Amino acid sequence: MTPFEAAAPTITQFTRPADLTGPRRRELAACWAAVVNVGGAVVPPDCPPPPVEPAGLGAAVDRIAESLGPARSRLLTATLDGALAGWLVLRREEHPLEAHCGVVNHVQTQVHLRGRGIGAALMCRVHRVAREEMGLERLKLTARAGLGLEQFYRKAGWTEVGRWPGALRLAPGDDRDEILMSLAL
């Protein structure tokens, strides 16, 4: 492999809480903390404001793990050489009128591995899992403005369908739009 070739990540799907071991949960929390600490993710409401430590996100990762179920929620991880490179959560909407829709949350890649196609690989796989395995017809997600995320999602086939101006207050004087995105499968 030349220095310009990047290894493709291995994508693994978790569908049951017991499948997500303690070491993998700790890797998820460490990745989440690193992403939060560079301004690329939001901490859950029960966590302290950044900077955060991985241990501070352990309960949030456990909640994600406990919500897993083949019909309702899945965790996709990307690994390189066995180490976590990125992850996301796909869940089915619970309301009967929206049960044909899914929501993608927590799209994150290790900070030091950005630009290597890990997020794109996760997006490609989540489309297939949603459509072929969960029978979903549409996906939705929200993204924070000001980070260039809308361009990333557009490249992956998503469409911006609206914005909530100033909906996210990151700090006093730093309000951002919340971008609403949709993808027909």
Question: Any descriptors?
Answer:
185 residues; alpha+beta; seven-stranded mixed beta sheet; 26% helix
Report on the architecture of this protein.
- The longest helix is centred in the first third of the chain and has 16 residues.
- The chain has a 7-stranded mixed sheet, with helices on both faces.
- The chain is globular and about 45 Å long.
- The mean pLDDT is 93.
- The chain is built from 4 helices and 7 strands; from the N terminus they run βααβββαβαββ.
- With 185 residues, it is of the alpha+beta class.
| Count of DSSP-assigned helices | 4
Q: Over all CA atoms, what is the radius of gyration? A: 16 Å
| Oligomeric form | single chain
| Spatial shape | globular
Q: Roughly what fraction of the amino acids lie in strands?
A: 25-35%
Instruction: Quote the average pLDDT.
Output: 93
As laid out across the biggest beta sheet, the strand order is 1-2-3-4-5-7-6
Distance between the termini: 35 Å
SSE pattern, N- to C-terminal = EHHEEEHEHEE
Count of extended strands: 7
Helix content: 25-40%
**Ranges with pLDDT <50 over ≥5 residues?**
none
Class based on secondary structure composition and strand pairing: alpha+beta
The major beta sheet can be summarized as: 7 strands, mixed
Report a brief summary of the structure.
This protein is of the alpha+beta class and 185 residues long. It is 26% helix and 34% strand.
